[in-house]
């Protein structure tokens, strides 16, 4: 398998990276596929190798609102790591997507059995969450918005 | 001219000579501005004769306090900085920069302001203020773009400096290395001497025009007694400074104390009134104002002094950058004592003490610098311990 | 003190609901040439003048993209073709693209910050042999707020665009502009970066690039402060030791970072 150069995997030490990849299988999604739905069981996760995935939230009476897009090298899904293992967003492929797909259960087990591996994977996931949180908070500032709020 | 032989480098004049100096400068087409007593203060105003000089007046200065006091010795220049400085004349509070006219098809024609400016002669420029003029020269004409409003006034100005023999309680020119002896940049420099040999002024020329004026003055050759009396009085003045700055590199002190607790202390007292910036002889900041006449086809650009203590000074569309009074006092002090070096290669403070005297609550820049230095010392000690 | 030079408005294009681009031609003599990143003080008759970056330099012609936020920007946004405005300049530092020869280029723009970067990208596209890969990353508020959409250089430069918020019609990316850095193609130690946008966006972007190994000395950012004169005399644009109209608006990150970290400096 060719290995993703940067992003999530790039942050793992080579030993841990190879270990994690032993759980991976290749997956392809045609454009417009919904990979998972809000509140569904978070029993898998993906590392995107190509294509774009939009994370969205269902708003009654509106088409799903896209809150973030993920692309090459990004981790798709982290709800598998924390109880209650439910997706809190939906995911839809913008265009055809190739990815490494992982079942959550064996990875969680491996993490529990080997604390060093577990810590390394958890730290990488936490870093992803922290970055997304930071980016989201920055977007909340509405930096490019009209000074003082609202549109002129 | 007395006609006697003398050293062209210096000469001695008496009070009549001072009168003659004013007359000669006026005869050369100059507007003579000097110190004079008005409304309980020694101010700078146009004078037409020596009698208008503050003979017999001195001042008592303290933080937030200014008082005129009569002197028995009749000295003319035994006072220190008053409420104004020469920037009032060289960098006036309000000037028109240009005007613009719009014709029927919307074309605009812009004309730089060329209202004639007076050719000034400043009489009684103290050494600190002479340095302040040099500092403003650097700011307003020393960069890539010259400020023509300033340059036109400055180029024509004739400077008669007077060395300091009677420093005020708020003076600290020794710390800032600007006085009490006169530095370069004058046309004529005077030192007032009062002793058993009479009331007289030692005069030196510092420029061609200064020498020409000196040659026209009724004077006598300088004698060694007058020279040494002048030297001694200036040297004694250096020992009688009312204030000092801490003996450290102030630029580094400012850079290293941006987060100091002391800024909170000073801003609990500061009213952000901006008086300190208005009286400071080097503060140069301005804002602009655009006005149109009733036809709407004639517009003018005016600029006027503005203070960094104004909240709107740093207005950007999202609001003021320096919103808190703390950040505004800090900006002023660190600019004067620190970042001025980065921007213009010298200190922005010349030690005249005006900001101390004219602060309504008596905030003292030297005291603040000492406090910052102590606080820095404490935190360095803590880190080391 | 400098005096505005008359320029005629020869074109006017509405870019977004609050932004327009005006193209100016000297009525008589032109000002000295502008470099990408430099700015002009543009005068709306009787209203005032404001700093505006040049977004296009075409011989003596200048273009400015103006966002309406107040009196002067509003007047310039609404100016009609054929009218005259006053221009002073060129002022400030430029991007100094030539310093980046032989490097990967990462250009990151947020909102109106794309305006000063546009001539930089055009210059890089004009001499592709001098640089390695060109990455242009653009963040906007919503798809409606994006500037210069469909201009040929955007395709030529392979721009990547993301917006903070999008409606259902948007098929592009959603997220902070920093997320685009993940997808950009550059080798950090051999990269030169150019950033303009709101200050928090500049800080986040530069920090991210440094974290990835881009040399802070190779990152240049463009900063905004109040400016009345453009000539270093009014005192308003101070950022600690810098007078941004003279020592900026484009400043190296090594210089800018410690200053931006001091609150209300
Ligand atoms: C280097 C540089 C490049 C820029 N390039 C661009 C660009 O390409 N495109 C663009 O759209 N914008 C640009 N800007 C921002 C633009 O200059 C401001 O949006 C513009 O100055 C706002 O002016 P205004 O009159 O429309 O708004 P206002 O908010 O009314 O402010 C106008 C100016 O007047 C002053 N001012 C306003 N109100 C007050 C007050 N109450 N007290 C004191 N002063 C006040 C401020 O100095 C302010 O900058 C740039 C800014 C800088 C510094
Ligand atoms: S800061 Fe104060 S003491 Fe220093 S030059 Fe200005 S007014 Fe004088
Ligand atoms: S230091 Fe004094 S003079 Fe200066 S703004 Fe504060 S209160 Fe006013």
UniProtKB/TrEMBL annotation, chain A:
Residues 8-77 form the Cyclic nucleotide-binding domain. InterPro entries: cNMP-bd_dom, cNMP-bd_dom_sf, RmlC-like_jellyroll. Pfam families: cNMP_binding. This is Cyclic nucleotide-binding domain-containing protein.
Automatic annotation (TrEMBL), chain B:
Coiled coil: none annotated. Keywords: Iron, Iron-sulfur, Metal-binding. Residues 259-291, 340-368 form the 4Fe-4S ferredoxin-type domain. It comes from the Bacteria. PROSITE patterns: 4FE4S_FER_1, 4FE4S_FER_2. InterPro entries: 4Fe4S_Fe-S-bd, 4Fe4S_Fe_S_CS, Helical_ferredxn. GO terms for molecular function: iron-sulfur cluster binding; metal ion binding. This is 4Fe-4S ferredoxin. It comes from Embleya hyalina.
UniProtKB/TrEMBL annotation, chain C:
The keyword Transmembrane does not apply. Signal peptide: none annotated. It holds the Pfam family DHODB_Fe-S_bind. The keyword ATP-binding does not apply. Binds 1 [2Fe-2S] cluster per subunit. GO terms for biological process: pyrimidine nucleotide biosynthetic process. Keywords: 2Fe-2S, Iron, Iron-sulfur, Metal-binding. Residues 2-97 form the FAD-binding FR-type domain. Its cofactor is [2Fe-2S] cluster. SUPFAM superfamilies: Ferredoxin reductase-like, C-terminal NADP-linked domain, Riboflavin synthase domain-like. [2Fe-2S] cluster binds at residues 229, 234, 237, 245. GO terms for molecular function: 2 iron, 2 sulfur cluster binding; flavin adenine dinucleotide binding; metal ion binding; oxidoreductase activity. This is Oxidoreductase. It comes from Embleya hyalina.
